[in-house]
Amino acid sequence: MLEGCLRALLEDTGDTEAEILVVDNASSDDSTEVAERLASEHDSVRLIRSPTNRGYAGAVNVALAEARGEYLAVLNMDVVVSPGWLDPLVALLEGNADVAVACPMILLESDPGKINAAGQNLNKTGLGFNRWLGKQRTIAGAEPFPVTGLHGAAFVIRKPLLARLGGWDESGFLYFEDVELSWLLRIAGNEIWCVPASTVVHDYHLSMFPHKLFLLERNRRKMLLADLRLTTRLAISPLLALSELMMWAYCLLRGPKFLRAKWQSYRWTSANRTLIRARREQVDSVRERSDWGVLRGLRWGYPLDQFLTLGRERGESTRDRIGA
Questions:
Q1: What is the CA 313 to chain-centroid distance, rounded?
Q2: Staple 102 to which of 89, 179, 185, 224, CB 3.0 to 4.6 Å?
Q3: pTM for the full predicted model
Q4: How many distinct helices (H) and strands (E) make up the chain?
Q5: Residue 44, pLDDT above cutoff 80
């Protein structure tokens, strides 16, 4: 996957000058050999080693300290970009000072005629969903449009802004970090847009496994506790309770491992109150919008098709790369 991602970047025919930073997150496979080989062959490729696995957001922070450009483009290693993909994203950012992040149209590798995500739709309860997952690519049209959330697989952000925000919060280690960054950008008064003229393909399959659910739920609870004041959480408590009920019902459907993972998410947030308090102070230091200003425009409902897909899943997930 890494070689395919890097080859596409190296073969990019766009006009945007770019350097390619590959962060090795203390990996144990042969990915560093791939990166080392391509770095020795191409001056634009630099390999940066992290002595520990800091998670996805942590790896981006490693690159943030080394990047020389005005913008930081973040890519999963299982993403393959299309030629010229950066040009329309940078053009949007340069022409719109209020836009902090530009997202490409992320297409499914299994069927590039269909969408993986055109950004994310954020729910008022902190959940995030792929916008237009499985829909035909043509539904997006040709013109850029605002979205409530970025998708972590591929996006471009203003580098000075990310630095001013304190980098990407890496305390969640993995999963949900894109939703959390999207909320923080909204809190700081920034906008996120999707640009259909820029496309990438992503090896994506909607799937769930216990460790992923634990990380998603603990990080969502952490974000709500840090980003929303108590009075706001009380005001939307019926909606939060409904989401909790739905999550518990889903875990009951999937079995004991999922129930245990959900319960452990409560235990984690209870044990990490100091971390959450520090995060709240960090969030308040960049706040430009009130809680209700942030919640305005977020979704009330849920994409039932994505819930049904996860509900029909049975057995061990083939996408579980954490427990492997």
A1: 23
A2: 89
A3: 0.95
A4: 13, 11
A5: yes
